[in-house]
């Protein structure tokens, strides 16, 4: 009888343990479900917030782009006007600079032409000075009048040289048609071929331009 009673007590204890175990499992399942629901809810809220922020950011970017595009169009129009005016100004400045250079060149050419014309008219006077001094006899070269004329002649040449007029070298130089005008030919073994043997009339240059070619006699 005691053994039967022990068995009953043991069975009751086992049933209580089994019930407690089932209760614990049920409680764990409920907690797990609650945890899952909380996690899902948090994830959903986070996703919602991120989506809202992305939408807000996208809307803001679109708005900024629209504003930038609006202002950019206005800026482009002004830039076009500025570029057009700048280009026109540069063209006018370039045209004015070309006009200034062309005018200066023309003025310089006109001045050179005028100076060259004056020099051409003065050269015969120099020729007459040279002929007159060359015709003075040896015993008269020390006379005051002759000495005075020689000084005036030399002063005349110095003044012309300062103005850019200089004589062309001829005697002993090789004949150059750009500077010399050959009017006679002579055979001379002492001179080389195409060498100027004698100068019949002096030639002159004004700066880099020939005013009058030298009239020369060429050897060989």
- Which range best describes the helical content: under 10%, 10-25%, 25-40%, 40-55%, 55-70% or over 70%? 55-70%
Mean pLDDT: 77
**Which sequence of SSEs, written as H and E, runs from N to C?**
HHEEEEEE
Strand order across the largest sheet? 1-4-5
How would you portray this structure in words?
With 220 residues, the protein is an alpha+beta fold. The strands form 2 sheets. The chain has a 3-stranded antiparallel sheet with strand order 1-4-5. Helix 1 packs antiparallel against helix 2 (144-162). It starts with a helix and ends with a strand. It has helices spanning 2-134, 144-162, and strands spanning 165-167, 180-186, 195-201, 204-206, 209-212, 214-219.
List keywords for this structure.
220 residues, alpha+beta, three-stranded antiparallel beta sheet, three-stranded mixed beta sheet, 2 helices
Please summarize what this structure is.
With 220 residues, this protein is of the alpha+beta class. It is built from 2 helices and 6 strands, in the order ααββββββ.
Detail the topology: elements first, then pairings.
Layout: H1 2-134, H2 144-162, E1 165-167, E2 180-186, E3 195-201, E4 204-206, E5 209-212, E6 214-219
């Amino acid at each position: 009888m005691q053994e039967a009673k022990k068995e009953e007590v043991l069975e009751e204890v086992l049933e209580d343990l089994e019930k407690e175990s089932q209760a614990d499992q049920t409680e764990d399942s409920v907690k797990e479900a609650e945890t899952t629901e909380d996690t899902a809810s948090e994830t959903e809220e986070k996703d919602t917030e991120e989506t809202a922020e992305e939408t807000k950011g996208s809307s803001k970017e679109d708005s900024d782009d629209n504003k930038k595009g609006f202002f950019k169009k206005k800026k482009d129009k002004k830039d076009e006007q500025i570029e057009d005016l700048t280009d026109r100004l540069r063209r006018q400045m370039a045209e004015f600079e070309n006009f200034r250079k062309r005018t200066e060149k023309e003025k310089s050419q006109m001045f050179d032409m005028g100076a060259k014309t004056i020099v051409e008219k003065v050269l015969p006077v120099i020729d007459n000075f040279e002929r007159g001094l060359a015709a003075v006899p040896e015993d008269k070269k020390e006379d005051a009048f002759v000495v005075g004329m020689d000084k005036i002649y030399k002063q005349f040449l110095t003044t012309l040289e300062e103005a850019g007029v200089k004589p062309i070298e001829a005697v002993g130089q090789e004949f150059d048609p750009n500077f010399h005008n050959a009017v006679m030919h002579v055979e001379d073994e002492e001179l080389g071929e195409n060498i100027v043997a004698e100068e019949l009339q002096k030639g002159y240059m004004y700066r880099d331009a020939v005013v009058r070619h030298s009239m020369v006699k060429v050897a060989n």
